[in-house]
Amino acid sequence: xxxxxxxxxxxxxxxxxxxxxxxxxxxxxxxxxxxxxxxxxxxxxxxxxxxxxxxxxxxxxxxxxxxxxxxxxxxxxxxxxxxxxxxxxxxxxxxxxxxxxxxxxxxxxxxxxxxxxxxxxxxxxxxxxxxxxxxxxxxxxxxxxxxxxxxxxxxxxxxxxxxxxxxxxxxxxxxxxxxxxxxxxxxxxxxxxxxxxxxxxxxxxxxxxxxxxxxxxxxxxxxxxxxxxxxxxxxxxxxxxxxxxxxxxxxxxxxxxxxxxxxxxxxxxxxxxxxxxxxxxxxxxxxxx
Length: 289
Known about the structure:
With 289 residues, the chain is an alpha+beta fold. The protein is 28% helix and 33% strand. The protein has eight helices and 15 strands. It has helices at 20-29, 36-45, 87-97, 114-120, 157-168, 173-182, 219-230, 246-254, and strands spanning 2-5, 8-14, 46-52, 60-66, 70-78, 104-108, 123-133, 148-151, 185-190, 196-204, 209-215, 237-242, 258-261, 264-268, 280-282. The longest helix is centred in the middle third of the chain and has 12 residues, at 157-168. The protein is globular, with a radius of gyration of 19 Å.
């Protein structure tokens, strides 16, 4: 698709590794902190579309991450000099058109993006709670005699995929493979029978150590995973918590986390979220749903 901007031709294309530096600059321009590793994981797990101007500069972006029965859209950004031309809408529609209309697509919206997504047909069905922490205070670790934490090993991968599928509501093998490779640390929780019952990953970004995904059978195991990941890091922390985890959020606040935003989850091609078993305590990142 071509769009004319004061006699300047803009082309909507799929972006690749040669566009990473432009995408980082575009992200920086609005105060977001995508870095080379995060963009690489997005590209390996999905696709990024965007407009380029006549000089080949990337001036918009939108990413779609595909799972088996669901997908997530994020990284919707438009260069300030090119706003008002519908670039964000066109890039988002390109993402939607890239998957069958039977695939449920979710996104976590900014306040500014909500009107755009509503016009496209997205409906708000839930929200997430963004928590940041500058001074981590290790919580009083609950005594759980029959739970063991171990560093992730390749032998755990199939178990992690299986429990994540029930927690998230879709099987996301490729994404988890890429995310674990990217992670600073990944930990699994095992029961006394040596079964993997939870896991947590920590991703080091330019601003924060992102804790997620966090999957656990209950608040106590989720807190153990958070504490183990957070205690290895000196610096700022972030975790995005799905709605319905109020007790866990209280634990986070006791650890020094503060909620700074509560963005809506919006969905298209479905009227409900994928079926989940209430074990997802922290999402991977907003772009991944």
